[in-house]
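Encode chain A's predicted structure.
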Amino acid sequence: MATVIEVKYFNSFWLKTVNDVSASPVFPNGYPYNTGSKALPLLGGGTLPSFPGTGADATATGLNINWFIEESRIRGGYNNTQIDLGVRAYIVEDVTEQQNRINSLIYSGVYNSRTGINNTNQFSVGKDIVKSLNPANGSIQKLFAENTNMTIFQESKVSSALINKDAIYSAEGTPVQTTSNLVIGQIQPYLGEYGISTNPESFAYYGYQKYFTDKDRGVVLRLSRDGITEISQYGMMDYFRDNLATLNDNYLWSVTCGPTTASTVGNSKSIDVNGADLNTVLVGMSVIVDGVFTAFITKVTPSPVGGVVLIDRAATITAGENVLFQSTAPSRALGGYDIHNKNYVLSLQTGAQYTDDTLTTPTNYSTAAFDELINGWVGFFSYKPSQMFNIKSDFYSLQFANIWKHYSSLVNVCSFYGTETSSNITFVFNKDSSINKVFQTVNYEGDNGWLVESFISDPTGYDFSSNSWRTYNDQTQGVLSYVDGTYTDGGITYHSGFNRKENKYYANLINTSTAQPGEVVFGADISGIKGRFATVKFAVDSSTDPGGTKELWSVGTKINYIR
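Encoded structure for chain A:
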């Protein structure tokens, strides 16, 4: 007759020995103690029991060994609270290796906060709880649930799945909705070979519209009721094709600091860095000395004249050396929806984060906005966000540890993260672009305070001269705003830039081009510039209502055709 013997097991704990920061004659590098249990005392003479570690700790000293014990009371203390008894299950697995199922969805048991049922840690092998997608489309990067549907974003495909319902069809082909115990139902891919690549951070949504990027195909996409649409083709196809291609998986972030003074603290090393602000030096960065990896940074303490960096080992660093702090971080295509202006905002961020240590000069980024009302991209912004989100009707963005509210009346227009920039608009005069003409004047309707930074004709083609290829353009000198161009001579007020007539601003164009081969009349003797089309850049001056709103309604030019 068989006999069943019940064996009770206590729960297991993983403990680690660490050092106290205080030193003693017995422990010159600090006093070792165990963080979890009192059941393993130190042996005489300051040594530890010689239990083996695992992995990297197998050859380590006693100060670094991990301890694996079983005990029934918290911290192993006498008469401490006793924990529940555990079980030790033994199962036979044919394949013991870990499986990384990048294209599968696995769901657990139910969770109901009202009844207190929480089975989210239960994954029954007796139920069909796995839903797999085509592995040829890459890994699943993003899941988005709305109502009874879930959108699944893979690297190369976007699909939709039913949630908590299943769709069946009658013999006549009539669709019928019925409930079942199937959590994830039928998966239907959207038309088009598009995915989200490896940039799930580009996802943003508003209403039934979802926006994201596909780096591998160089496009920005919108998913709505009519399927997937390439919104990057609305005037920005070349731009996003070229710039999305620069989003590498990782970029190198380096900060050079020095000179240093080195000193030992406990079992680590501190580096005093003089004459540098360490705001861009982060925990986890590598310390590079003479091109050789030396240590990792474990703590940073900035100061007005420098700072102290604590590293994880006693490295060979001498006073006066310059050290390189280096880290890698992923490039990003950060997306967000501006609910205030109803725009999809996309920030492409590559390369080093900032050029200075004060986090005020962002580099290698571009932030653009797409407007559904005009079905096009409305412009670029000068800010580089770390994250974007909405609260009710307000739009916010993060820059590291700071949160900023956009469209606030408390700050000037075009002031982002405490830095003010000047607005500018670039457009093209291209009427009858196949006919040669002379652009003589420029005019606009709008608020005072606009100036012309540049007015350049189309290139005349490439010519080989002086062992190099050259291209020629006609261009004018800049046109000052109405206020900046005002001056008085003999008691009479004149305007060297824009002049105002009946609330419309006019200015002549003065040619500043150098003489080119084949030209009969050229240079400053010419009023206006020759060309088939012209590229014009309007900007806001710094003297007319600084920080105020300035509108530009229309821009025009007077042209003469060359017969």
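Residues 9-86 form one domain.
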